Amino acid sequence: MxxxxxxxxxxxxxxxxxxxxxDANFNFALEKYAIEELDIGPSYFxxxxxxxxxxxxxxxxxxxEINMPYAKEHSINIVRRITGGxxxxxxxxxxxxxxxxxxxxEQRIEFSYFTKPILEALHALGVEASYSGRNDLIIDGKKFxxxxxxxxxxxxxxxxxxxxxxDLEALVRALSVDDEKIVSKGIQSVRxxxxxxxxxxxxxxxxxxxxxxxxxxxxxxxxxYVLTEQDIxxxxxxxxxxxxxxxxxxxxxxxxxxTHEGRFAGGKLTARVFVENGGISDIRFYGDxxxxxxxxxxQAALRGCRYxxxxxxxxxxxxxxxxxxxxITLDELFSCII
Length: 338
Known about the structure:
33% of the residues lie in helices and 26% in strands. It is α+β, with helices and mostly antiparallel strands. An 8-stranded mixed sheet has the order 7-8-9-10-6-2-1-11, with helices on both faces.
């Protein structure tokens, strides 16, 4: 495992930004670069934070997930991840971690393997944290970390968030409708279900001190690689061409006249189907589920299919539809289409 770290600011030419890991778009571009182009080892690790940011799940409808007026008023960055799952709010008092592993022993979405070292590091700090549910880490029954994964051929990306001392009121307001009564109830509810790591440390420390302590534990068996000027130029290109673009972060949702949704072990899934002349002319899947790379292929395979039960089920079977989803069966997927 190789820890990827930035060069010192004075090591970069003036036309390149000094990377201090607070730009989510840059860090997502770095993940993509490490997955597809960096060739210095079989696996990589990142530990980073961001300015206030809403990170949208790969398969979510951005505008339906966030409070856009609040985000604009407070200059909150909005960016879509390449992983599934739900929208999260992060700020400078929270941390993100990323594991990128080539040729894993098993090509499947698996959360406990990657969260184990994070939990061990927290235990070393005296924090009694544990793994829970589909993709969460908890303390005293309250969530402080959500995790997501992306599988691309022979590479697995696992990244997660760590609420250290995050502004929970901002978190609720950024993710809620702009209604003060609803927001107030939401803040009370979130404080009952979500927590910050800082509240459980034996001694109060800063966010940066927390990072240093975590890394002192996590990096014990890792090498370190300092990104070069060439690396950073390519990462900046990827950020501009993908993660900075409106088309990626918001896009144009297709018109639809049929909507079905369900909640399953693998998360919420909504199918929006446009039917024309008795056939599916377009279909999109939205939700906080997790899926393998290539879900677009399944959507493409369903276009042109007659919109009737036998034809849709046959198309799902032919496309091996259950392969794409984590803990969502073919029958459950079918129920969201017909």
